[in-house]
Amino acid sequence: MNQQMAYETERAFPVALMRPRGVLDALTAADLRGALLDCLAAQPVAVVLDASGLSLTDDIAVTVLAGVARESARWPGSRILVAGAAPDLVGAAERMGVQPYLTFCPDDTVAMRQAELLPVPPMVRQTITPDRFAPGAAREIVREFCEANHVAGDFATAQVIASELVTNAVVHAGTPIDFSVRLSGSDLHVAVQDRDSRPARIVGFVEESAEGGRGLVLVDALARAWGSMPGSAGKTVWATVRVRVAPGSYDTGDDLGV
Question: Are 68 and 18 in contact (CB under 8 A)?
Fold first, then answer.
């Protein structure tokens, strides 16, 4: 990591607090992006970025914040709150047109209070061993989560997607898998985090009669949306399925998107 930038991060779910210190320029912007994406992989409802320790030397560097916010809007929907930013950083955000993607707060106390008011969606996260039993374990986690949170109707689509994402991670990454299921409004989010930094991509088609290994081709066909988010030590591949939730099951609040 560039010596001009240092980080203190508190990832106490449901709100992550990050305090970068140093010079924000075209070089260190990439480091800041990576650190923010690492925070987002844990799917907090918000990331509070305490910018009081940042000094800006290049206006274009602030566009990294808007880029991360736009990526978060697709998944996991976390809000990005920038606290204690110096006037030159706020001015740069205005000049570069990135303010609409961010929430600026006078200090981290105000930002944390705002973040703590956001609804916390139901979520389960488990580590799965990358073996032949992994897809079945993922399907069972989805079933138990949906039943516990009163997801109405057939959630088989989410189970198929979970199985294919986990199979893909077992075959291509072979590392321990952090598997999560989260319910935000009427969106069921399934995510697989592994320790392989190679991006997930569709590489081809397999026979329709195959019992598994259809991978991202099937995910692409079944999911409302899907994507791959890089991290400092791997990636997270996620997919979203629209579901019905029994009325009164829980307070969904507004969607968490930016």
Answer: no
Whether the bond into 176 is cis, omega within 30 of 0: no
Compute how many other C-beta atoms are within 10 angstroms of the C-beta atom of residue 40. 23
Which among 60, 81, 116 is the end of a domain?
A: 116
**Structural domains in the chain (count):** 2
The 10s digit of each residue's pLDDT in 21-54 is 999 998 999 999 999 999 999 999 999 999 999 9
Supply the mean pLDDT for the chain: 89
Q: What is the pLDDT of residues 96-155, one digit of tens each?
A: 999 899 999 999 999 999 999 999 999 999 999 999 999 999 999 999 999 999 997 778
DSSP state of 106: S
Q: Which segments within the chain are labelled E, that is strand?
A: 5-10, 15-24, 46-50, 54-56, 79-83, 103-105, 123-128, 151-152, 177-184, 187-194, 225-231, 234-242, 244-245
Tell me whether residue 256 is in a domain. no
Host domain of residue 51: 5-116
Based on the fold, state whether residues 87 and 140 are members of the same structural domain.
Answer: no
As given in the structure block, the two tokens for residue 143 are: 């079933």
